[in-house]
Amino acid sequence: MSGPQCCSNPPTLNPNAGAGHVEQLGGLSTYVSGSPNSKLAILLISDVYGYEAPNLRKLADKVAAAGFFVVVPDFFNGDPYVPDDANRPIQVWLKDHGTDKGFEEAKPVIEAVKSKGVSAVGAAGFCWGAKVVVELAKAEFIQAGVLCHPSFVTVDDIKGVKVPIAVLGAENDHLSPPTLLKQFEEALAAKPEVDGFVKIFPKVAHGWTVRYSVEDVAAVKSAEEAHQNLLEWFAKYVK
Predict the structure, then answer these.
(1) 10 Å Cβ neighbour count for 89?
(2) pTM reported for the whole predicted model
(3) Quick check: 90 and 4 in contact, CB under 8 A?
(4) Residue range 177-212, pLDDT digits in tens
(5) Of 65, 70, 62, which is closest to residue 30 (Cα–Cα)?
(6) How would DSSP label each residue in 144-170?
(7) What's the rounded Cα separation, in Å, for the pair 27 and 18?
(8) Residue-level pLDDT at 1
(9) How far is 6 from 153, CA to CA, in rounded Å?
């Protein structure tokens, strides 16, 4: 389920990355960006590398600049996946950091955000985080969701979604290959009451929206196109 691709191109984590700051929210250390007075919030749920990834925080700042209050919690409590740790391969790490736990821990974060006067919440998840977002979308804890190169998400998950959902997938992805993405598209087409959108980005691999090299012009361009789609989805449904 989670092969080498799940963990390729690891980011160089930086606790000081981004224009926002870290505060406690719903019991988790959380990177926040944007106006806390905004009535609209977006929750970004990271991949296995966690909330200190500079590209993820840069995206949070970009979403905040569009008028949203953006929160990026540390669902791993200071224990992101470390690819060089031979004693703790990804399967072992996942035993401590299941997506089911992430789903439970996301609920108090959403409650905390709503207690600030927020009236609508969207959520975007990356790889690991996409599974958490699909669970939030099935239980209607959010108003809209975006899944970027999802891991562990099944056709049954997509069938259970109750809010508008966009899936941004990669042409080269062993975790959510185009054949699976097409099944997601069919499942959403069979649910006219839920707005759905599936897009397969050519010539990119799993993780491309946040694990790109800032020096790679083509990679940045593909990531920015995905970010734009994400922003458009939230502008349409989180209001």
Answers:
(1) 13
(2) 0.97
(3) no
(4) 999 999 999 999 999 999 999 999 999 999 999 999
(5) 70
(6) EEEEES-SS--HHHHHH--S-EEEEEE
(7) 21
(8) 45
(9) 13
